[in-house]
Amino acid sequence: MGTDLYRAKQSKYQSVIDYLRNAIESGVFQSGDKLPSIRQLSEQLSVSKNTVIRAYQELEAIGVLEAVSKSGYRVLATIEEKIETVAPSEVDLLGVCKEILSYPDYRELLPTGSAHPCIDAPAIRSLYAEIGRQSRQQANIVSHYQLPPGEPLLVKQLAKLTQELGTPAPINELLVTHGAQQAISLALRATTQPGDIIAVESPCYFGTLLLLESLGLQAVEIPSCPRDGIKINALKEAISRWDI
């Protein structure tokens, strides 16, 4: 019940946020405009004052609103973001890796460009020994990665789920890949040829770039942010300029 109550509170302030964002995007409230007081918006939307306060604080935190002393909240004046799409280029991840991993061999420096542990640390030997023990114990467990088409029992269960979800797929049309990376690899091999241009989020998973490099594909970077995802306008511009 506690979880349900939390979700209810969360959805209420989120609905206020959505209302305000829609009003700003549609031009009802423009840069510099004063927003309704906490009491006014609370009565207008039939929510508590605390809910309105939380919504205003969230929007202030992400730079949509600003609190003005003794004057409430105003829409923050924004400068329209200009996104420049960089032309497609061949992927040379090896060169980038060498640049990042090449550093003076000073013991006082922490090599943050690599996830390799310090093999001189006393705990490493016991860690590797424990990994070896666990590997021997789990050698016959079917939860590890398997090559396509995958564990027959898993494929059968997935076919059953597709029936229940209303999108039935026969067993011979299901393919369980050796991890998500192999799924991406198979998709690219089926739909591209060397020299083709692939749009990728920037930043993106380095394994994807390694895959593009191995397949001889070009990458065009599309800016993205952790909150809103890929920049749709930048993707639209890239598609209009190049055959992606």
Sequence-ordered SSE layout with sheet pairings:
Blueprint: H1 2-25, H2 38-45, H3 49-61, E1 65-68, E2 72-75, E3 89-90, H4 93-101, H5 122-137, H6 152-164, H7 180-191, E4 197-202, H8 206-214, E5 218-225, E6 229-230, H9 232-241
Parallel strand pairs: 4-5
Antiparallel strand pairs: 1-2, 3-5, 5-6
Helix pairs in contact: 1-3, 2-3
How many strand units? 6
First-residue to last-residue Cα separation: 49 Å
Query: What general form does the structure show?
Result: extended
Q: Which strand-content bin applies to the residues?
A: 5-15%
Question: What are the segments in which pLDDT stays under 50 over at least 5 consecutive residues?
Answer: 1-9
How would you describe the overall organization of this protein?
This protein is of the alpha+beta class. Helices cover 47% and strands 11% of the residues. The chain is built from nine helices and six strands, in the order αααβββααααβαββα. α1 (2-25) packs across α3 and α2 (38-45) crosses α3 (49-61). It starts with a helix and ends with a helix. Mean pLDDT is 80; it is low at 1-9.
Put the structure in a nutshell:
This protein is α+β, with helices and mostly antiparallel strands and 244 residues long.
Q: What keywords describe this structure?
A:
single chain; 244 residues; alpha+beta; four-stranded mixed β-sheet; two-stranded antiparallel ribbon; extended; disordered N terminus
